Amino acid sequence: xxxxxxxxxxxxxxxxxxxxxxxxxxxxxxxxxxxxxxxxxxxxxxxxxxxxxxxxxxxxxxxxxxxxxxxxxxxxxxxxxxxxxxxxxxxxxxxxxxxxxxxxxxxxxxxxxxxxxxxxxxxxxxxxxxxxxxxxxxx
Length: 139
Description:
By secondary structure, this protein is of the alpha+beta class. The chain has two helices and four strands. The chain has helices spanning 2-46, 50-53; strands at residues 75-87, 93-104, 111-122, 127-130.
């Protein structure tokens, strides 16, 4: 009888470890995907590929963001510095703050802006999306 109880306990413990491990693997995949997404998105912003960066923008609630790509013509980002990052406990939401230095075609002045971002993980699509839209550049 003791052996049976120990065997059942061992099987239950093993199942808990496997289930816990699966969750950990899922979270690890999600975090790796976030890192890859942020690197790709930052690269697009840095090189002025704002139309491609729009592929990362999708609001969680499905509302449309009115983003006029004409506002990004002539904007050249010279530097992108991450300032702060916060990840939700369940690893499905990330808040970031980046400082961007940029100049405009028609001006010889480097300006600075802060881009506050809210990223969220879409479990169905298995990818991260930017809820807050593209950075705003003062003209």
